[in-house]
Design a protein that fits this description.
The complex is a heterodimer. Chain A is α/β, with parallel strands linked by helices. Chain A is 33% helix and 29% strand. Chain A has a six-stranded mixed sheet, with helices on both faces. Chain A has a four-stranded antiparallel sheet with strand order 2-1-4-5, with helices on one face. In chain B, strand 1 and strand 2 (146-147) form a beta hairpin. In chain B, helix 1 (7-33) crosses helix 2 (41-50), helix 3 (55-89) packs antiparallel against helix 11 (234-256) and helix 13 (278-302) packs across helix 14. Classes of the chains: A alpha/beta, B mainly alpha.
Chain lengths: 255, 336
């Protein structure tokens, strides 16, 4: 069953149109990457698909339900979102941050249950920060903080996982390891993932579909092997890219 | 068994709350015993317990306790207003005094006083002034991306000085006989008679609502969009916080004029002790703020007796160094 379907949607930021008449369907286990130049509206599109920005035109459905008719709470039980650069204004601990991910599942008048706590613990373990629970978030490095946010996102247990530059601040090891493990987990649980990516090669390696934003509302989408070619990507970044074969895999390198 | 909200934190919070639960009545007793006629603590407790008529009884119940209870309500209101404003504006430096909310309430209250309208309308006018002033600061300081810290504080300070100028203007056109009383009220003076039923009711309603919304507040400080993505109705919550903080400021201003630093210092102090979780921060700040102001009010009466100092002056004397010390201690433990 399709988890999310967008029909003829148009989104814009200010006067700039991000996409026009876009149709998209996210299937369980699918991993999409949104690519495009800086300021083209990748984040805007992600927020729009998550129901956090109004549509100019078109419809988005979650399963059969129109997205804009869901309550905030049930939407948050279905769509999880990792933000690009969360700022910290107040001291907060790692535990509290991961626990925030459980918010949509906790009854309004009640406290977190042991079930919530064991999920939060499990996800913190998964990102290798089990000993950091009571540390203040601001005392962590950028990469560690990113892993805490990923743990919070996983703890939200949503069928749709949207991530704005998930591997921001992560070193090479964690970039590949986390994407590999996190996405394998999402596939195993039949979740659908949409990521805004900067790195073309991480996008082609870890996702199965690409959505290219050319600007002026023009988009192109499809399976990675059909979309990821020199012509499309060079036009996308307005910079010549070359494709190099390396054994079974390939990568793009800017001229 | 693994407990995510670590036992140590819960135990610590238990200790802090128990300590505060003792501090609140203790501060009232201490405050009732001190003054131009010193009454022994045991006598205070005995008099309150038996309720037997005596001179002590009259002094305690008619002179001292009403002021102390007012101070308790004002301190609690200002602290809670501070917590709510800081969450609303996502800025740890927000405070009813700094951002001119108290000033707005004072101007509206003064106008009603000058017009000679009945006392009840003063509270209403102060509430309108506080909410309007806070809404004005929010409206003026927001840009497309949200609120920037510097812009917010600058706007608040400018609005506050605008209200200050209006207050000076109102004082200069009012009659000489009224000016002294108004000046004292503005600097923080507790009127005779305790807090009214309405004041207590406002505090209680806003408190209950804030406690029920405290998990939402935890998410709100992490960012509006983030909170929205986790299912919080941020517009409704922020609107409620705006009105709640405005009403609490109005309660404080009508009871005691403009008293600064309580809304800034107390939440900070409690954040360093019990952490930022609003489920703990709200009750702890409320109790701490209340008893802190009871003690301050007592000091204002006794330090230079028979002269009375404005409470606002004492809160600044006590609050500023304490705040600086706690800030320094907090930054040290964080780097360790």
């Amino acid at each position: 069953m399709t988890l999310l379907s967008a029909e003829g949607i148009e989104a814009s930021i200010g006067k700039r149109v991000v996409c026009r008449d876009l149709n998209l369907s996210l299937e369980p286990g699918g991993v999409w990457s949104i690519l495009g130049r800086n300021g083209i509206g990748k984040t805007t599109l992600l927020l729009t698909l998550a129901g956090l920005r109004p549509l100019n035109r078109g419809h988005i459905r979650l399963g059969r339900d129109p997205l804009d008719q869901l309550t905030r709470r049930s939407r948050a039980q279905k769509i999880g979102l990792l933000f690009q650069n969360p700022e910290i204004q107040f001291p907060t601990t790692v535990n509290e941050t991961v626990m925030n991910g459980r918010h949509p599942w906790i009854q309004r008048w009640r406290d977190s249950s042991e079930h919530d706590q064991s999920i939060a613990e499990r996800e913190l373990n998964r990102v290798g920060l089990q000993d950091f629970g009571s540390r203040d978030l601001s005392s962590l490095s950028g990469g560690e903080r990113r892993r805490v946010e990923l743990a919070a996102l996983a703890a939200q247990e949503t069928e749709l996982v949207f991530m704005d530059e998930p591997v921001n601040h992560l070193d090479l090891h964690f970039q590949t390891q986390l994407l590999k493990e996190f996405l394998a987990e999402c596939r195993a649980k039949a979740r659908a993932v949409v990521m805004v990516m900067h790195d073309v090669n991480l996008a082609t390696r870890f996702s199965d579909h690409l959505l290219l934003l050319y600007g002026e509302g023009e988009t192109r989408q499809g399976p990675v092997e059909l979309i990821a070619n020199e012509e499309n990507l060079s036009r996308l970044y307005q910079h010549q890219l070359h494709r190099y074969q390396a054994g079974d895999t390939y990568f793009f390198y800017p001229a | 068994m693994f407990n995510f909200q670590t036992d140590r934190d819960s135990r610590r919070f238990g200790w802090v709350i128990s300590g505060l639960a003792v501090l609140v009545p203790a501060s009232l007793v201490i405050s009732a015993s001190a003054g131009s006629i010193a009454i022994d603590w045991s006598v205070v407790v005995e008099t309150i317990r038996t309720g037997r008529p005596s001179i002590d009884h009259t002094i305690i119940f008619e002179l001292r306790l009403p002021r102390s209870v007012s101070a308790l309500v004002v301190g609690a209101s200002l602290s809670l207003a501070g917590v709510l404003m800081q969450a609303l504006l996502r800025n740890p430096l927000a405070d009813p005094y700094v951002l001119g909310t108290s000033g707005g309430a004072a101007v509206f209250a003064l106008i009603v006083m000058l017009l000679g309208l009945p006392y009840q309308t003063v509270s209403l006018a102060a509430a309108v002034g506080a909410v309007l002033s806070l809404a004005l600061v929010i409206f003026l300081s927001r840009d497309a991306g949200g609120w920037s810290s510097t812009r917010l504080l600058l706007t608040g300070i400018v609005v506050a000085s605008g209200w200050g100028a209006l207050i000076s203007f109102l004082l200069s056109i009012s009659q000489q006989s009224q000016v002294q009383g108004m000046l004292f009220w503005l600097m923080g003076d507790f009127r005779e008679g305790g807090p009214g039923f309405l004041h207590c009711l406002v505090l209680l309603v806003v408190l209950v609502f804030s406690l029920f919304s405290s998990r939402g507040l935890n998410l709100l400080v992490a960012g509006t969009l983030k909170a929205e993505s986790l299912g919080v109705h941020t517009l409704r919550l922020r609107l409620a916080m705006l009105i709640g903080a405005g009403l609490l400021t109005a309660v404080a201003v009508t009871l005691a004029g403009a008293i600064g630093f309580v809304g800034l210092v107390v939440p900070h102090m409690m954040r360093l002790i019990v952490g930022s979780d609003h489920r703990r921060l709200i009750p702890a700040s409320l109790m701490m703020g209340g008893s802190l102001l009871v003690i301050t009010e007592m000091l204002a009466r006794t330090v230079l007796a028979p002269r009375q100092l404005p409470v606002g002056v004492i809160t600044a004397f006590v609050g500023v160094p304490l705040f600086l010390y706690l800030l320094r201690r907090g930054s040290r433990t964080q780097t360790q």
